[in-house]
Amino acid sequence: MTLNNDCTVVITTFFSGKKLEDCLSRIPSLYPIIIIDNGCEKNNKSYYESKFKNLTYAIPGENLGIPRSYTLALSLVKTKFMFNTQPDVIIREKCIENLILAASIYPNAAILSPIIFHEGKYLLDGDYKILKLKKNRLDFNNYQPKKLYFNNPPDGDLCVDSVTATAMLIDTQKIKQINDWDNNIFSYYEDMDLCLRLRIKGFQILKIKNAEVDHEAFSSHDKKFENQLNFSRNWHHSWATFYFYMKHSTKFIAYKFGIFLLLSSFCKFIFYFFTNKKKFNTHYAKFLGIFHSIFKQRSSYRPRIDK
Q1: What residue segments make up the domains of the chain, in order of their start?
Q2: What is the pLDDT of residues 108-159, one digit of tens each?
Q3: Element spanning 128, H or E
């Protein structure tokens, strides 16, 4: 089988169960695929490499998180582009082909992202983020987050502020010019950080109208690990938010947000300690994440999974 020399598909996994196979089954067999398995499920390697002849299954030996996984994958990629996605994404027909074609039309684009559908509808906030820059810093005066569903996506290609890591075609040479992902982050905001640094470098971020995927959010893992991964998500989201604000805005804005979240999450986890275990765990995780971030401790939390 002759593989495509333009693009390699990269998927990071963490106990994804059947979701991974569903995702892989919709990827055209002409594209080489690299799996980075952060769950270190060694039995999966022989299974997937025998079933999908275009696939390389890498087991790093530890849970690297999202940015370090993609950095590892980038070192293995031999093609001009890498298409990064997740196990809970279903790639529609000709999605990757149309992104590659668009890359030839827009040579200054570093990232080209498909239109992402959630439960059949186009979700603006789940597709791209509004992140305005002013003198290479985030301009929060113009930052107006939206979270709206639409029956129909945009009518044409769009140049946008940033896109989510749900699915993105990346020009590997352009991303190397900014030293790829920020490996201080474990998860969350690594996509926003990447897009902002590429824009500061002078590159564009695009949404491509005729490339589409379906995304079932927060379902890329086995449901039996839901509680552990919810705690991890809340921990790292808090940690990464403060870190992102410190990196791309002012200390005043970062600490204003960070101290508010610290106090808010502390009060909430105390309030829910005796009344609601689920909400207690959510706010306790947020408190620990923002505490570590404010006090300059690394993004160290890792979910404990009993296999």
Answers
A1: 7-215, 223-294
A2: 999 999 999 988 888 776 677 778 888 888 887 655 555 666 677 888 999 9
A3: strand 128-129
Going by C-alpha positions, the residue among 260, 272, 186 that lies closest to residue 229 is 186
Instruction: Judge whether 305 and 221 are in contact, CB under 8 Å.
Output: no
Give residue-wise pLDDT tens across range 217-267: 767 776 777 889 999 999 999 999 999 999 999 999 999 999 999 999 999
Closest by Cα among 233, 248, 2, 6 to 112: 6
Residue 40: how many CB atoms within 10 A of its CB? Answer: 16
213 DSSP β-pair partners: 91, 116
Half-sphere exposure of 69 (CA within 13 A, CB side): 28
Cα distance between residue 155 and residue 161, in whole Å: 18
Amino acid at 98: N
Q: What is the pLDDT of residues 83-100, one digit of tens each?
A: 999 999 999 999 999 999
Q: What is the pTM of this model?
A: 0.93
Q: Return the closest-CA partner of residue 229 out of 87, 125, 130.
A: 87
- What does the DSSP 8-state code read for residue 188? S
Class of 7-215 in CATH: alpha beta
- What's the length of the chain? 307
Q: Are 167 and 85 in contact, with CB atoms under 8 Å apart?
A: yes
Show the tokens assigned to 186. 């474990």
